[in-house]
Amino acid sequence: MTFQTLDDLEDGQRVLVRLDLNSPVEDGEVQDNRRFDRHAETISELVDREFEVAVMAHQGRPGRDDFVSLSQHADILESHIDSPVDFVADTFGEDALSAIGELDGGDVLVLENTRMCDEELPEEEPEVKAETEFVRTLKDEFDAYVNDAYSAAHRSHASLVGFPLVMDAYAGRVMETEYEANTAIAEKEFDGQVTMVVGGTKATDVIDVMTHLDEKVDDFLLGGIAGELFLRAAGHPVGYDIDDANLYDEQWEQNSEKIESMLEDHRDQITLAVDLAYEDDDGGRAEQSVDDIDEKTVSYLDVGSETVMEYSPIIRESEAVFVKGALGMFEDERFSVGTAGVLEAIAETDCFSVVGGGDTSRAIEMYGMEEDEFGHVSIAGGAYIRALTGAELVGVEVLQR
Ligand SMILES: Nc1ncnc2c1ncn2[C@@H]1O[C@H](COP(=O)(O)OP(=O)(O)OP(=O)(O)O)[C@@H](O)[C@H]1O
Ligand SMILES: O=C(O)[C@H](O)COP(=O)(O)O
Known about the structure:
Monomer. The chain is of the alpha/beta class and 401 residues long. The protein has 15 helices and 17 strands. The strands form 4 sheets. Strands 5-6-4-1-7-8 form a 6-stranded parallel beta sheet, sandwiched between helices. β2 (25-26) and β3 form a beta hairpin. α1 (34-48) packs across α2 and α8 packs across α9 (224-233). The radius of gyration is 21 Å and the shape is globular. It binds adenosine-5'-triphosphate (ATP) and 3-phosphoglyceric acid.
């Protein structure tokens, strides 16, 4: 099934565009990344064709440090296209409507973080989202809706699934290319070994998907927060929160049964880290064998060098390698050994590879690798691995109705 694209959109209209600009935030500063670069292509095309463009996007989640305004995103987006990008600190209230009313052909306006609107987040059916005041108010201001946010298309949120039910809806260029690439990849068959490197912070997303990929993937190599939860299930005292970070315990509550049953039924397909890295008292990197950890007293921020040495030959023997999520907090060079080591092993190997994730794909350029050393680099994380299972993404599905 296909959707309408920008080729089907009549010139000069007022368009409401959903991008995924969800980015890493370090000390309050939004970090530029390839999501801006890729979405700039869609926005530039709309500007060149004299559309009046308003952009919706989200950043972080309420209660987390990365839940910030989109004002910096507007500036970064502007630096990727050749024309001004305005920002209004409002999602669909009077200020937003007045700024939208002032748009002229070729103008771009970024609206405030959609997740600051109460109706955006709860996961509900598209039909319910279409009835929200948020959707009902904004839809009257525009002639068409464009969804370019493939990487958020696994979420049934108002800005993603509500508008297509009540407006003419189109796929942007990123939506089109990511959908085509990931669908083709999901249909690929491999004769040899298929390996999936699973890490990152969104353990709930990856563990759900792992349970659906156990026939397609021969070897899961674990790291990141997800890997620590598997180590906890295997009897090691890691994968617990030791401060207010709230990265582990809630995800453990949600997933412990699934993890335990995966370990029980598929132990031979799951490879766990043998050592982990942490920050020592002098601010350096220290490593500890998993077997020597009696109690969690520090935050483990990377897998250790021994683990990279165990994972690399498995990668070298693979016909296909999929990566979702970083093996450590690679943004800090001290904790990049796992992520950079595994990506380098993939780049050096003649296998088919896909690296996905808004954050994870950033590690490629940070550590001196080139995108063309990999089969496909997706700016989608959760959406791409869900697509690998052959499942429809709700945000894509409503565009195809
Ligand atoms: N042990 C760890 N402790 C803290 N953070 C970690 C650890 N391991 C990995 N990370 C962080 O995980 C992040 C990447 O994982 P995340 O789950 O956000 O995936 P992603 O690649 O960005 O995919 P998505 O697009 O779904 O967000 C990195 O920014 C990295 O710093
Ligand atoms: O970064 C992502 O994977 C998407 O923007 C979805 O964000 P979320 O996991 O916070 O819903």
